[in-house]
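Anyone up for a design puzzle?
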């Protein structure tokens, strides 16, 4: 029996989403745990998250119970949501650390490129794009605008 963790975006109530469908399908032949992707953290040198061990009562519209923070040590991890954008890089680094110990179904390279603001524009041969400029510094962008007239 495999131990599978499904990373999902936690909400106050369960939503009619793939994490419930996959969990229901996998439960019975596998040990299934839902982990809020936004709860990923490092505790005592271990990547941890809020674990919800699968129950048949998990249905759309029911309240999401309070979860316990536990180390993530499942055999298989499936990222079904990337959660809040503002903490994406932190979560990505924690997932990368986990990838050395557990199998992650999703390619971390693919996850990075799906959330990358620069990837598509740096490959104009593959993905035709208009001339694009980006910077963390607004004055750099203002100079580009001024130089283009």
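Challenge accepted. My sequence:
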């Amino acid at each position: 029996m495999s131990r599978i963790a499904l990373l999902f975006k936690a909400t106050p109530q369960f939503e009619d989403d793939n994490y419930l469908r996959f969990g229901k399908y996998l439960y019975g032949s596998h040990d299934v745990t839902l982990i809020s992707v936004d709860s990923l953290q490092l505790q005592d040198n271990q990547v941890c998250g809020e674990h919800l061990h699968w129950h048949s009562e998990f249905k759309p519209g029911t309240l999401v119970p309070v979860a316990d923070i536990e180390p993530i040590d499942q055999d298989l991890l499936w990222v079904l949501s990337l959660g809040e954008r503002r903490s994406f890089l932190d979560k990505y680094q924690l997932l990368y650390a986990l990838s050395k110990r557990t199998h992650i179904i999703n390619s971390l390279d693919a996850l990075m490129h799906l959330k990358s603001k620069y990837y598509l524009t740096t490959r104009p041969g593959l993905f035709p794009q208009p001339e694009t400029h980006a910077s963390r510094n607004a004055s750099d962008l203002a100079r580009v605008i001024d130089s283009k007239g």
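A detail worth pointing out: The mean pLDDT is 90.
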